[in-house]
Amino acid sequence: MSQSHAEAFAPPREADDERRNLVGLSRAELAAVMAELGEKPFRAKQLWHWIYHRGETDFAAMTTLSKDFRARLTETHVVRRPAVNQALISKDGTRKWLLSLPDGQEVETVYIPEEDRGTLCVSSQVGCTLTCKFCHTGTQRLVRNLSPAEIVGQIMVARDDLGEWPKDDSEVPAEGRKITNIVLMGMGEPLYNYDNVATAMKIAMDNEGLSISKRKITLSTSGVVPEMEHCGRELDVNLAVSLHATDDETRSKIMPINNKYPLKMLLDACRNYPGTHNARRITFEYVMLKGVNDSDQDAKRLIRLLKDIPAKVNLIPFNPWPGSFFECSDAARIKRFADILSAAHISSPVRATRGDDILAACGQLKSESERKKKSERAAAAGA
Fold this sequence. Notes:
Layout: H1 3-8, E1 20-21, H2 27-36, H3 42-53, H4 67-76, E2 77-78, E3 83-89, E4 95-100, E5 106-113, E6 118-121, E7 125-126, E8 144-145, H5 148-162, E9 181-184, H6 194-205, E10 217-221, H7 225-234, E11 238-242, H8 248-254, H9 263-271, E12 282-288, H10 296-305, E13 311-317, H11 331-343, H12 368-382
Parallel strand pairs: 1-2, 6-9, 9-10, 10-11, 11-12, 12-13
Antiparallel strand pairs: 3-4, 4-5, 5-6, 7-8
Helix pairs in contact: 2-3, 5-6, 7-9, 10-11
């Protein structure tokens, strides 16, 4: 992404409160803030523990800090997460939070509980850079990138709501956590906001804070080829690629990014993604669209495309949303597609739809304010 593009969609400065938010600062940045305040580096370590291990937002409660220092911090700094505008719970236990940001923009975050894990789906942009035709989020124009504070803040909000912060300095055992996995699959294209995403994920992975293993973090991209290797080398997280078609003509129609980074270029980048091997495969997301990408020929082409790539294919039944013009492939067709892949020894689970009753399923995220604006515009046009 060019510097001018990054600047055009950069997060705004928080004008409503002159105090600086400590959430989202890297360890080095937090140490620099302490130096500005005339404090020694160990203060940064103490604050890091309170903010990311204990989840504390009130300086007055950070009892390992001196009273004078706590008072000074209260005057000049804050520990702020995004505000929860709305919290919804699906009949299947999926949770969705509509979060309000300091400039009034909104994003959505989704938590999916399962028997063996709890997955938090995190957003990286307000709206989306891309305009994938089957995706509800893609109908919301890109407003701006999220800051590291707004990205890591989504994890912290979820921990608040799920009651997952320890009540003392003891460690929360990994097997007892509700949030075990992070997927950057919410609103936006993470690799078009890479620097902020990388800062946030380094905070999430820090062993003295949120302590989420890099093996439990998956970054999903629609195929921003130039940033893929950089991401693998710097973050070493799992990669998921939104593929959704097996030929350039079809993929370009439903995913315009394919015009810039066509299939050969994308799949070569997947082959070269650092750390990929048979025990750590790349996940390819494939939404099943009736009559578009679900034929036997598509399945066989997909097998050829993924040759020499340690791969798993997630088959996703299309989740309808208001105004969508695609249909989901029939259950029998999806099974036939999966069987062809399985016969070629490619793992191809069919993803169960979760949270569709609260528009929290894959491809359905779009901030409530945008839905309301669209309905208001439609009403005005009718009048």
